[in-house]
Design a protein that fits this description.
Helix 4 packs antiparallel against helix 5, helix 19 crosses helix 22 and helix 22 packs antiparallel against helix 23. This protein is 48% helix and 14% strand. It is globular, with a radius of gyration of 26 Å. The strands form two sheets. An eight-stranded mixed sheet has the order 1-8-7-3-4-5-6-2. With 573 residues, the protein is α/β, with parallel strands linked by helices. It starts with a strand and ends with a helix. It has three domains: 118 residues, Phosphohistidine domain (Glucose Oxidase, domain 1, 3-Layer(bba) Sandwich); 108 residues, Enzyme I, Chain A, domain 2; 316 residues, Phosphoenolpyruvate-binding domains (TIM Barrel).
Length: 573
Amino acid sequence: MTKMLKGIAASDGIAAAKAYMLVQPDLSFSETSIADPEAEIKRLDDAVATSKTELEAIKAKAAENLGAEEAEVFEAHLTILADPELLGQIKDKITSDKVNAEAALKSVTDMFISMFEAMTDNAYMQERASDIRDVTKRILSHLLGVTLPNPALINEEVVIIAHDLTPSDTAQLDRNFVKGFITDIGGRTSHSAIMSRTLEIPAVVGSGNATSEVKEGDVVIIDGINGDALVNPSEAQLAQYQEKAAAFAAQKAEWKQLKDAKTVTADGKEVILGANIGTPKDVEGANDNGAEAVGLFRSEFLYMDASELPGEEDQFVAYKEALEGMNGKQVVVRTMDIGGDKELPYLPLPEEENPFLGYRAVRICLERQDIFRTQLRALLRASAFGRLAIMFPMIATVKEFKDAKAIFEEEKAKLISEGVAVSDDIEVGMMMEIPAAAMIADKLAKYADFFSIGTNDLIQYTMAADRGNERVSYLYQPYNPSILRLIKNIIDSSHKEGKWTGMCGEMAGDQVAVPLLLGLGLDEFSMSATSILKTRSLMKKLDSAKMQELADKAVNECETTEEVEALVAEYTK
């Protein structure tokens, strides 16, 4: 029977394929007394052997897709599986306590995990705790006869069905096989949604119930244009969606004509359309979609895709590749934005009530200057190979910006004294994502070379509404007059000091927001590469003077988001 699921359109496009359930199975069990310890030990040995075969396949796949370094984490897992001390203790427990293999496994591994986690001054040992936890889960799944999902091993065309996708899940997805995905939770600005646009695959997020409504192997159509998904469609429905997919492909081909054109409004005003990227590999997609710059290189993916802190050389190679790939167009790199929902297993951060408002981004960098200086040196060395700009995330005060900039200047002077080639025109700016900073934009504009507005966080902080919380998602209002006033203040303040303002939050590619942002005087719009040509096409139809009138009315006369939307519709029809 066909089912329709409704969610939020997160990434344009239409796809149909078999469902792949990326859902953690139930690994609960009861402790039971056993009569035959030898049979129980054989069950354990079989589960360990199967886990070993599985991990070797995953390791090979990871090495092929992501490189040898990425695959090392699985080597650590294989080492644990072969550890005679660990396995010996589990077998002893089965024999002495006459308990089932599941209970013995959990009891012994919990003891090791607690022991390693207690070594707070030894990051290596804390990592081992996380590895043992993963390996335990894998052995347990084989003892219980359930399957652990493994996105790295997908080798046929599928649509992923998940409660949510973590950044590490999305890092494993092979877009040759993963045709789209649908999640239970999330909004347009959740990491899974942003990654789907970077991967250029259709996605629907926030469906509420996809994981309970879809079964492994069901045929699913994802409509990332309208935010719908059809489960087990009829032949007629499949044909209808194929037509829709063909129409969308034709529309994309029309936009493709604008790939090498400048971004110019109907009355001749030029603006820059940039791409948001996560790794140097994304530069190809940026160029294919006619990006005039990279407005945001999320450098934290270099940290999230590694099994230890990336060194200066690895980072230098990545930044150099991105700069050379953009052929002289500006690349704005955001320094490490870790914390919030982006955790590193090898960099344990304190447990916090509210990590989004806690120890993250530039706050970590100013305290852990060893990490920050390594990144800045890599960036400075790479600056000789293209047009680099650097921005600091989560700046709240003038002092934070000045402190971060001073460290940059120190490392620059050191490199020059060492005879290393460094560009002499690196712009150093900051993300505008904290309302406190937006309110003193006039002060910050004296010191920063540019601002880049991160609307995803600016909106959630201004509205006091967690962007990942479905119950308050109605407060995620990019067009609210309060948000528009903050944006206006940021842009006006930068222009008064002769500086420029870009935007790298999702609002920059939002087709309702674009006319407003043009009217507010935004200089650079940076977005998922797949939104660039659609936005360039829209810009051609807009008169910047008329959009200025629209923005003035929206900021000064409108009271609600709905009024602003109606006004945009009136001005752009």
